[in-house]
Structures are given as structure tokens and as C-alpha cells.
Amino acid sequence: MKSPAFALVALLVAAPHLPAADEGNAKARQLATEVWKASGGENWNKVKELHFTFIVEQDGQQIAAAEHRWDLGAGTDHVKWKDKEATVNLASPAQDELGKSAYARWVNDAYWLLAPLKVLDPGVTLTYEGVKESEGAQCETLRLTFAGVGLTPGDQYLLYIDSQTKLVRAWDYLPKADNVMHGTWENYQDFGGLKLATEHNFAGKMIRFADVTAKMAD
Hints:
By secondary structure, the protein is mainly beta. It has one domain: Clam (outer membrane lipoprotein receptor (LolB), chain A). It is 14% helix and 48% strand. It contains two helices and twelve strands. Strands 4-3-2-1-12-11-10 form a seven-stranded antiparallel sheet, covered by helices on one side. Strands 5-6-7-8-9 form a five-stranded antiparallel sheet, covered by helices on one side. A hairpin with a 2-residue loop joins strand 11 (194-202) and strand 12 (205-216). The N and C termini lie far apart (38 Å). Mean pLDDT is 88; it is low at 1-24.
């Protein structure tokens, strides 16, 4: 599974910012802002630390896990996975094998947790694609493409958004135009005002988050 695109800079700012290239798409901007707000975007600047464990299961068995201790103030993430452990500087990750691997783990795992809070990032182009069915419901859809951000900027995502709650119900991940991988967004929980999905049924595997803790500013 490739690492989804992920821009660090927007995690270090409090307010949403829309790329100039997308300013003409009012419907997409409006929907993206509603998704951001529904997911707790207005509380993001209060987060001091975010701890979570990213787990992948197949046929009921755990096949991968990575524990993260993300210090937003310091701009670091302490990652433990397999037999590896490292603290990565997110603004300037080490270029040795361990540093690159730790950074890639953060990019992938944090995006699965926080993608709805990333829709207003610099470098993200938004396209509204109307109403489509997903998970037995009619959803509004929003396509995300990227310009020069993340480890795999050629990736695309199509978000299926609940028209009432404005929460993401599912997404299509498109590493290539003809390769569509579908994943659900389920079991939303509140963490310090962030409303995050903790389970994803994705391409025959279950991705889930455990031990999620958001330490907020006083």
C-alpha cells in the first residue's frame, strides 16, 4: 500500500488555506470547508500531542502495527514498528534508511487518521463531482489531487461525504487512473474535539486505530 500524499505545513497552521488554482470551484470549496469543520478542524490548533497506533489486520489476524507519539510543538514523531524505533524531525527528516522509513510511516499512518482535516491544505486541488452512492447511501463527492506535496503527489482520492453530517463515509484511492481501491471510514470517535474515523475496511484488509489520545492546550 503506497503512502498517501501528505503536506506537513498545513498541520503547523491553525487556519485553512485554499490554493489559488481552485478558487473558482465554489461548490468544492464549500464542501471541503464543511468536511474540515465537521471533523474538528477548528480545534486542530489546540492539539499539542497526538498519540495513536496504526494497525492492519487480514482474516482476523494482525499483520502490521506502528505506534506513534507525535509532538506537534517540537515537530517530531516517535515511531515504533516491527523491530524498528526512531524519532523523526518532520520538517527535515534524516536521509538514512531508518529516517526515511520512519517519515514514510508517519506520512501514511497520519493521513489515514487525519485526511478530512487535510482537504484545505496548500497544494490540494478540489473538484466537486456530484452525488454518488457509497455504502448504501447517497453521498456528495469531492476529488483531491495534489501539486508537489507528499511522497506520492500523483495519487488521487475521491471522498464520499455524508450530506447530513459532512463526515467522510468512504473514499476511492487511485494511485493510477485505472487502479481504484475502495475504503470505508467508520467508527467515528471524538478526541479532544477532533472527530476521527478509527476503522477502514480497505482492499480486503482492516485498518484500525487504537490508543488514540489527543493532548490539548489548556
